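REVIEWER CHECKLIST
Item 1: Sequence provided? yes
Item 2: Single chain? yes
Item 3: Sequence as submitted:
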Amino acid sequence: MIITSLIENTSGKGLPVEHGLSLHIHLQDGQNILFDMGQGDLYWQNAQRLGIDLKDVNVAIVSHGHYDHGGGLESFLRNNDHASVYVHPDAFLPHYSLREEGLSFIGLNPQLADNQRLVKSQAVTRINEHLTLFSNVQGDCCYPHGNRLLFGPDKKEKDTFCHEQNLMIQEEDTSVLIAGCAHRGIVNILNRCTQLLGHAPDYVLAGMHLMKSGLESADEATFIRQLATELMLYKKTRFYTMHCTGTEPFAQLQSIMGAQIQYMACGDQIFC
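Item 4: Structure as written out by the authors:
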């Protein structure tokens, strides 16, 4: 299994970047999966720069209803004419972020909601023998503080992130968990994944939504220590983080977790 970062906030290969996420996954049996699509069509351009043909993608997934993960959906549907795209039924509801200028719309293009290529996923959706999506994650362990700035579908309601889904990949003896932003909390998502698999995944790739936590530095350090402690309970799992984790929170996590956690920048590849 080869996983390539097409979009991420930081460049590891001199590629143009944006705030967002897009991962290409190539399985040994020839399947090609696209997990998220960034803000526009930069993910497609970067794939071409890396020699990856996204017209070969068989399955595409939008992790949740935010523009930096599904803004490229229109370009994908236009340029790839056959792959099914799995989205949560609530992904196209309105979503907002509280910024200095007030609430800003950060959702997906609602005009795409009824596209016939879209497959509305369930709490657990088995795509094929290798791929399973799951949502409806419960628990509040290490719940990201940055979520306080996110609202929807009503502007006066905090987002519950029921529209967020996560991908499990099982290939031979290797299992991988991929989460876009882990708004429900990466520990809670990891716990649910372990329940579904019957064992801990070998690899976790996830944004962990630690940027703009709003915490004082001492409180943030305490939170990150707690998060690292929880993640290290999964002793045999290797973590790769990216995007909304932020480089400084990552550095703090790595100072505790050591080589168990690494950063995956735009253009980087992981061989699982």
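Item 5: Key structural point noted by reviewer: Residues 217-231 form the longest helix (15 residues).
Item 6: Recommendation: ____
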